[in-house]
Design goal:
two-stranded antiparallel sheet, Beta-Lactamase, alpha+beta, 322 residues
Length: 322
């Protein structure tokens, strides 16, 4: 159980989303292929398609969950470890000036600080036979803090089965700046990726990209530069790594904002369409098995590719670009 928080400026009401994602209509899904390993055969080239064949970027929703305000609230506020079912605080750490070191002292009762609905969410998640993560949103005013808690469950196995036949295509949005740091990811993607916004916001775009597919991301940025920021589409599937290490195949469209004065790309928006069941354990919410090597690039190699992406985005475009 990993509580995470987001600060939000003076919100009077905080809607509590449903604990379980909506059940999709059962549909037959093809057996996903086995992912290749790093250093395997070369991947298909990435080509830019005619923008007229793709949906215009103004139809891309900035978030799939309208009631979740994404502005200025993507940072970790505090973490707390406590006993169950009593709620006695064992340890805590704060990451913002809004909370001082004495906000959650050891020995106090964490559950007592929550409203009854928040307490029931945590206790119900702890008592469930299916492993779940907890997503907590914190709204802070001058003299109080309100916590909204949501028990999360993998979208691929809603009944707790190892493999689920219930699957429907899902699309989510990410945004990253010219520094390659993620600035936005849809909250609705949590049951599909198993990753909380606080796991990714501020981190590299490559933090959840399958390592053999970084060339797909690089080529997409080259195509964006050549197209003056107009929509491009990766012909090769872009594979993303879920929280538990499973692989998700996505069909991805890219669009960029080009500053008309500097003629440089300042923001890239990507629309990822998950089109098959994950390759690996369907319970993407669970933690990765101990001793299993991550499927993302090691930090040193990731930095090399990030430098390449930054160079592409900061490259001045041709005259007449806008």
């Amino acid at each position: 159980m990993e509580p995470a928080g987001h600060s939000s400026a003076t919100s009077n009401t905080t809607p509590v989303p449903q604990a379980n994602p909506p059940q999709p209509t059962p549909a037959a899904a093809p057996s996903p292929p086995t992912p290749s390993t790093p250093g395997a055969a070369a991947q298909p080239s990435v080509m830019r398609e005619d923008g007229a064949t793709l949906s215009p970027p103004n139809t891309w929703s900035s978030s799939s969950v309208e009631y979740m305000d994404d502005a200025d609230d993507n940072r970790l506020l505090f973490t707390c470890t406590f006993t169950l079912p009593h709620g006695t605080v064992l340890s805590s750490a704060t990451y913002t000036d809004n909370f001082n070191e004495q906000y959650l002292p050891m020995g106090t009762n964490f559950l007592a600080r929550l409203e009854p609905k928040g307490q029931s969410f945590i206790l119900s998640a702890a008592a469930a036979s299916v492993k779940q993560r907890i997503f907590a949103r914190v709204a802070i005013t001058e003299d109080r803090a309100k916590i909204t808690v949501l028990a999360l469950r993998s979208a691929f196995n809603p009944q707790g089965a190892t493999v689920s036949s219930n699957f429907h295509v899902f699309t989510f949005i990410t945004k990253h700046s010219s520094t390659c740091a993620l600035t936005h990811i849809d909250y609705a993607s949590i049951p599909y990726l198993g990753l909380l916004p606080t796991d990714l916001i501020g981190k590299s775009l490559l933090a959840f990209v399958y390592s053999p597919d970084v060339h797909v991301v690089r080529q997409a940025h080259v195509d964006l530069h050549n197209s003056r920021g107009k929509i491009v589409k990766s012909i090769a599937d872009l594979r993303l790594v879920a929280h538990n290490g499973s692989i998700l195949r996505c069909q991805t469209e890219w669009s960029a904002y080009v500053n008309p004065w500097t003629r440089k790309m300042e923001l890239v928006v990507a629309r990822h369409r998950i089109c098959s069941l994950p390759i690996g354990d369907a319970d993407v919410i669970s933690s990765p098995p101990a001793g299993i090597q991550t499927n993302t690039l090691p930090p040193v190699m990731a930095k090399t590719f990030e430098d390449e992406l930054r160079t592409i985005m900061n490259k001045v475009g041709l005259m007449g670009e806008c």
